[in-house]
Please model this.
Amino acid sequence: MFSEAWDLFYFGDDPDVRVRSSSEPPALTGRLQMAAVGGLDACQVLDTLKEIDEARSWLDAQEAKVVTRALDLQTEHTRHDPRDWGYEKTVTASEISAALHIPERTAGFLVEHSTLLTRYCPATLEALEAGKLSKRHAWAVVEEATSIPDTNPAVTADFEDRLIDMAALTTVAKFRQQANRLREELHPETITTRRKKAVKERGVFLTPSYDGMAWLEAYLPVDQAAGIFHRVDTAARALQGPDEPRTLTQLRADVLIDVLTSAGATGHISTGGPVVDGINGLDGMPGNGGSTAVGEPVGRGGAGAFWGVQAKVFVTVPVMTLLGGDAPGELEGYGPIDPDTARRLAGHAPSFTRILTHPFTGARLGADATTYRVPKDLQDAVRVRDRTCRHPGCNRLAVFCELDHTKPWSQGGKTSYGNLAALCKRHHKLKSEGYWHYRQPEPGMIIAISPAGETYLTRPDPPPAPKKDPPPF
Model:
């Protein structure tokens, strides 16, 4: 028995039915039907959600083709009028914007992504059409696939295929991190060369928004951006408590405002001191002093509390890189960094915790423990391996997660690299309450079992790639 049905097009006298622009037969036809939702069991619910997702992906693929066709038609039209040359995408976006009641900026992104998808990433379009990827995943694949020079078509095609396989198994956020590492392997230019070019584009930008608000954005070297964010985040978390009504996001904003608008902090930032922890002169700043912020005050200690906070960011460095090699390091949550930056952070930035890897195997150097309490070096090793909470789809950074014994200590589980995993408080509680279960058949490989019995396998991202051939000694 079907309780819901949707005719794609209906011709009748109903004034609420959309009037078609063309007198030709519709290009999109058919009928979707849904069984009575009230009769679905738990497994059917999950299957139906997946099927809806696949149908949505198929529609998104058709949309990309149609949008590209709209651009082609507009391009053909402007070919006969030199006044319109160069305005094809703008005119197409304005047409789509009016038809779909969306902002022209949004329509412009739709045109740009659709043409890249259909013209340059046919394998990704095929995966989207087959329901293997969502639109967000497909657009992310397109952005990554077109981010390296197409100097070798075979390499580019292989890159796209590998990106599709990765995107089909994880969230967009996690995919981008994995794709960044793969891009690093295949890019024809070294990360050192590309960083020197990219750093010239650094800047701070202000974009007005509605309701008396605005966006303040900064394009910075990743180590500096990470240092700033983690310092702000750590200071904000220190202000949390039962009597603090502000959310963590609001606290971060207030900390940033307090630091950048207080007279003392502004003076410190403008001194041009040495770059330490990715922030000019931060480690040389005094740890006390009041705040004269224009907005809501941060709280205990004002801006001075910010300068006294010691943020913690992991930087993974191959041993040979530390000794002068050219293998890239990796910054927690952000991906590969050039060897010079990795060496600088590992050697001179107290807020960055160094994790060394074996020069040939790539294995992280650490030790297991014989007690329930996890020693510091093992905590760091597990958090660097996991990067985020290991629950499927969760992106909370591991540094803010709890370390869980996959097999409980009370049941004979060891405090070891192969029996510990990062879980955020929420997912740790769901495990402790018996809703979700986890197994770790090998170090870092997590099998999560849902309340409905579904299983999800996740593996940790590999450490920075070592040199393939050891030196002859």
